[in-house]
Amino acid sequence: MFETFFYILIGFLLRVLLTLFGLSAEKIDHFRNKINFFVFYYIIPFICLKTTYTMPLSTNHLKIAFVANLTILSCVFLSWFIYRKIFPVQIKAEVLGALIVCSSFGNVLYIGLGILTKLYGEEGIAYAFTYDFFGSTPLTWTVAVAVCMKYGKAKGIRILDSLKTIIKIPPIWGLLVGFLLREINLSLPTELISTVGIISGYVIALMLAIVGFSIKIVTPERFALLLPAIVIKVIVSAIFALIYGKILGLSGIPLNVCMIEAAMPSMLLSMIFATTFGVDMRTSIEMIFLTTVFSLLSVGLFV
Fold this sequence. Notes:
mainly alpha, Na+/H+ antiporter like fold, 0% strand
């Protein structure tokens, strides 16, 4: 865990340093987005391929996918119920949409993958990808988009477009190709597998640093509004994962992976959704920052 905190701190200090040298927040975020794009589209697909090629799939993977879906959907309903039926103050639709998305969908790839790799190695990577690409990702591009379309100001994107987007995601193709190569017993060069393994170690450190690089200091003036969503994201979601995992018979590392992934902070993609669909950007940014801070404190409870 110390190593995880260290890389995140390095990223945060780098952002502070660049700010002191006069770079604007917009230029820093543009640089971060370029790195994210390169890693996601050109490196992670090969890590996915290597993971499914070398890690035998088991019933645990199917159970993890079920746990991921049930956990996220439970958080969506709970956050909607609290803010629509219980919360004493009337909330604007675009703020409600941002709160529901940010309390339910986590940064399971960038932070979650880094932490699980440090804790559980190759097995952690395999389970992390299962949670993300067969649970979090499909729901992100269907349920999260539907929530944003309902409560946001822009309503021009259809669910069918989201399904097409899922098909075009390179890491999913990496997972499928790796699985196919393994099933047809096509041998890949050992040097290629080991090289991808080495690269993946550096990529994990880079992704954790990017998380720190993305942190922005925000004032806690709306903390009372955000608190229920924060608690759902970093604590209640992990409890949901524990309950569903136990019901499905998970234990040990697979169960720990579900709980840790569920407790990850709000996804960075929520900022893009705020721009695209018109949900509240301020709420998204504050949730990303605050859940990042609190998840780093709470995740130790589930290790």
